[in-house]
Design goal:
The complex is a heterodimer. Chain A is an alpha+beta fold. Chain A has four helices and 13 strands. Helices cover 94% and strands 0% of the residues of chain B. Classes of the chains: A alpha+beta, B mainly alpha.
Chain lengths: 245, 163
């Protein structure tokens, strides 16, 4: 009797063990996919956020223009830059005493000039154009501090479009007495014909306008604060003198 | 009694053994399928890497071509600007030469008129008794005026010739 109970107990224990093991049985495998799903990644398509145009030129080059001053028996060239669709900024001495102003863009297109006006208290001029300009730049809110990196885009000696870099050395009174107040000095290389070139900061904003070249390779720049003052006060500008006046 | 118990145990364990057997076969098949999938994916990855390298080369070539095109555009813009400068300078030279020629022509005409008048005046003076003094004086004044115009024309020419 005792033996029979033992066997029944063993059998029950075995059955209980088997049933308990069912809870830990390995699952059956999931179906194998026919192909692996590609990892979904957000497409980072190239954009023009880097100020690149469809032709690959950047905004700094596209906003710069070449100005030919055809005078009465004289001919000179300078640089300038657009601040909106139909307005250029350059130097007063670039547009002064002209019979005609001939403007061309970075890609050789001609832009017809409509009117030119000059500032009395700074070597600055504004030219309105008949044709739209390819691109224009924004003005920086403040003048650059000494040591700030700058880029100059223009047409030195009336030759091809050129970009030079440098940094702001400091501020000084105008050695040419063409501007009221202080002007900036940079070590960016400029030459005759660079007058009117935009001086850009690292973000591509205009921080000044080149108007003269120093003896020691320095360049003199009308600060953007002066440019803003001239733009904000229309009484500061008047029609540019022509050689026929 | 023992046999009965064994039968009971076998009846309980049998399905378990069968499940384990079947599950093992399914896992083996699954493993082989995963291996095939991995091999296929590796082949596809290799092909994609090749496509990527080719696309990268195409992109590099395109960038080079863009840089070359930009350089050429800048050169052409410069050449056009230089031609424009030359054209404007030549136009100014042509205008200057036209003004000089016109001034020189005025000088020549005025001088010829002056000389003719003076020659005529000399002839009158040689036979002064035949003419009224007042008439001769007025004629002299007219000749002086003509020669004055020649002088003015010459001064205009000299002005044009100034550098």
């Amino acid at each position: 009797m005792t033996r029979a109970r033992l066997l029944v107990g063993l059998t029950a224990a075995t059955c209980a063990g088997v049933l308990a093991a069912c809870g830990t049985l390995p699952p059956r495998p999931d179906p194998v996919p026919t192909s692996l799903d590609a990892v979904q990644r957000r497409d980072e398509a190239p954009s023009s956020a880097g100020a690149l145009s469809p032709d690959g030129f950047d905004a700094a080059q596209r906003m710069a223009v070449r100005i030919r001053n055809v005078g009465c028996g004289s001919l000179s060239t300078g640089s300038g830059f657009a601040i909106d669709d139909h307005t250029l900024v350059t130097n007063r001495h670039v547009v002064a005493d002209s019979a005609a102003l001939e403007i061309s863009t970075y890609d050789g297109r001609d832009v017809r000039a409509q009117t030119a006006s000059t500032a009395a208290l700074a070597d600055l001029a504004f030219v309105r154009t008949v044709d739209p300009l390819p691109a224009y730049g924004g003005l920086a809110p403040l003048d650059p501090v000494p040591g700030a990196s700058v880029t100059v885009v223009g047409y030195p000696r009336g030759s091809r479009l050129t970009m030079t870099t440098g940094s702001v050395i400091g501020a000084t009174t105008d050695p040419l007495h063409e501007n009221l107040g202080e002007v900036l000095v940079t070590d960016a290389q400029v030459d005759l014909g660079s007058s009117g070139s935009p001086v850009l900061d690292a973000e591509g904003r205009v921080v000044g306008v080149v108007y003269a070249k120093g003896q020691d390779g320095a360049s003199f720049v009308v600060p953007v604060s002066t440019l803003r003052a001239m733009l904000d006060d229309e009484t500061q500008v008047s029609a540019a003198p022509t050689c026929g006046d | 009694m023992l046999a009965t118990l064994l039968v009971v145990v076998l009846l309980v364990a049998g399905p378990l053994v069968a499940y384990l057997w079947r599950t093992t076969d399914e896992w083996r098949a699954s493993s082989e399928d995963w291996e095939d999938l991995a091999r296929g994916t590796a082949v596809e990855l290799e092909r994609t890497q090749g496509d990527l390298a080719a696309a990268q080369r195409t992109l590099d070539d395109t960038r080079d071509q863009l840089a070359t095109a930009q350089e050429r555009i800048t050169e052409l813009a410069d050449e056009k600007a230089q031609l424009g400068d030359d054209s404007a300078a030549q136009q100014q030279l042509a205008d200057y030469q036209a003004r000089v020629s016109q001034a020189a022509g005025k000088v020549a005409t005025a001088l010829a008129t002056c000389i003719a008048g003076q020659s005529q005046l000399i002839g009158y003076m040689d036979d002064a008794d035949s003419y009224e003094p007042d008439v001769l004086a007025r004629f002299r004044e007219d000749v002086d005026a003509l020669c004055g115009q020649a002088t003015e024309a010459n001064e205009q020419l000299q002005h044009e010739l100034e550098p």
